[in-house]
Structure formats: structure tokens, C-alpha cells
Amino acid sequence: MEPITGGNQTQVMEFIFLGFSGASKGHAFLFLVFLAIYFITIIGNTTIVTLIQLDSRLHSPMYFFLSHLSCLDVCYSSVTVPKILANFVSQKPTISYNQCMAQMFFLMTFAGSECALLAVMAYDRYAAICQPLRYSHLMSSQVRVPLAIFSWLWGILDSAIHTALTTNLSFCGANQIDHIFCDVPPLLKIACSDTYVNEMALHTASVFVGLSPFLLVAISYIYILSAILRIRSNMGRRKAFSTCASHVVVVIIYFGMANVNYNRPSAGYSLELDTLISTLYCIITPMLNPLIYSFRNKEVKNALWKTLGLKSREFTSPRKQ
């Protein structure tokens, strides 16, 4: 598709991804790898949502938020991976301008929503461990439902601002993106109009959408750790730690990769490194979340065994019979 020329400017009609340009001979292998990752992501997260809906033992605030996290991960992965797979098949790594803007909008929506949701989940763990007598009140349906809705709206608002600003940029025929999907930073690199407002919006978002939720998570866990250390029994401390372990691992992976993806020094930029980091952040992380919660959470595993018609080890162990 040729760019349309008008006056002294050229309106770009499509973009070309350069992220896998150095691995042209390995597209078949990469297709299989990304397809496997996508299947694991969809099956893993869909399984968690299904188990939470089917098993009454999982009808608690913690699993309510976990089901939203799994939905976000399905959406997050579905925004990028199918297009990457289609480009591998067609051997033409392109995307139309409108599709690029749509992909960027939904990608940033789900990313921002996940940041907010992880902070909400940290507050839920704080309420459960530090305010156990008031937990049912603090996390009632009148509280947790608005918190979940707020998390989604938080991402939508942030994404709408960035998308509106990006659509006002001119690209003047420059349509090669050093990336594997449409995101704000790589699009700003090829824009020929002034990007100052966009960059300021991106920096502001990194504070309010990224840093603020992380600080809320950190503050919550400072209180949680303090409360756990006051528990006298070792079994009580282990149980309290176990309820937080999966969430802590997910937070470290997600915010860690987000920070590397958006805030690394430009001097260390390379196409190969950018492709790897973006793959880890946007494609691998949604796959890991259900695995982390499945392997470290006895209640989820027991719900799975029950759904499959199998007895869980918790009930078949000789020590507990």
C-alpha cells in the first residue's frame, strides 16, 4: 500500500515492523514458539477464570480480582500475538495505520488496567492480613466491584489520552517501526512533527499509571510484612506468606519488565534487545501469571482436581487420613 501524498507531507497508510527482520530464516520456528505461548496463555488464564466461577470455595475477593487479572492477560496477549502470527504466515510484517492506532489503544488500556489491578490486589492482601476482623466489610461486593471497574477505566483513560495525541502526529512517509507491535515510544521515534507534548504525557503516565500503583503495592507490603512478623506461630506466618507469595512474584515480574521496557537508557537501545524485552513484557508475562498462581496456590490446584473429577493430594495424603 503506497502512502498518500498531499501538499508537502505524506500520509502514512501502513507501518512495517522491523523487530524480526534479523531472523527472516527462522520465521517458521518463531511462529511455532509464539503459537505455543499464545495457546498456553489462553488456556491457562481461561482455566483460572472458569475454576473461579465453578468452585464456590474460590468465591472470595482475592479470586474475584484474580479472575479480572486473567481476563486482562487474555486481552493483553490477544492484542499483539495474533497479528505477529499473521505476519509470520504472510511473510509481510505490516499493519495499517488504523489497525496500528487500535492496537496501541488496547495495548495501553490493558497495560494500565493491570497496573491498577495489581495495586488493588495488594490492598486486598493488606486488608486480609492487617485488618482480618474488618476484611469482609473492607472487601464487600460494594467495594471490590467498583475497584475492579476503576482499574479498567484507569487504563482506558490513560490509553485514550496517548492515542488521541498520537493520531495528531505526522509521519511524513517514515513507516518503519523498530518494534514488533505498535506502541507509543517507537511511534514517537519516527514521527516528523513535534512530539514534546506526547513525551511529557508519556513521562506523566509513567508516574501516575506505573509508579503510583507500584508505590501503593510497596506500602501495602510494608504493612503486611510488619503484621506477619508479629504473628507468633511459624504456621501462621507461613500461611500469611503463602497468601501473598504469588501476587508478589507477579508484581515483581510485571513492574520490573515494564520499567525496563519503558524507562531504560536510550544509549543502550538496540533492535534485538528491544524485541526481546517487549516479548518478555507483553507476551511472556501474561503466560506466566496463571502458571505462578496455579503452582503456588493449593486452593486453585484443589479446584482444578475437583473439576477434573480427581481427588486432591490434600485429601489423600496418609498424614491427613
Describe this structure in words.
This protein is mainly alpha-helical. It has a single domain, classed as Rhodopsin 7-helix transmembrane proteins (Rhopdopsin 7-helix transmembrane proteins, Up-down Bundle). It has 11 helices and 5 strands; from the N terminus they run βββααβαααβαααααα. The strands form 2 sheets. Strands 4-3-5 form a 3-stranded mixed β-sheet. Strands 1-2 form a two-stranded antiparallel ribbon. Strand 1 and strand 2 form a beta hairpin. Helix 1 packs parallel to helix 9, helix 2 packs antiparallel against helix 3 and helix 5 packs antiparallel against helix 7. The longest helix is centred in the middle third of the chain and has 34 residues. The chain is globular, with a radius of gyration of 22 Å.
Features of this protein?
11 helices; 321 residues; disordered N terminus; 3-stranded mixed beta sheet; globular; mainly alpha; Rhopdopsin 7-helix transmembrane proteins; 73% helix
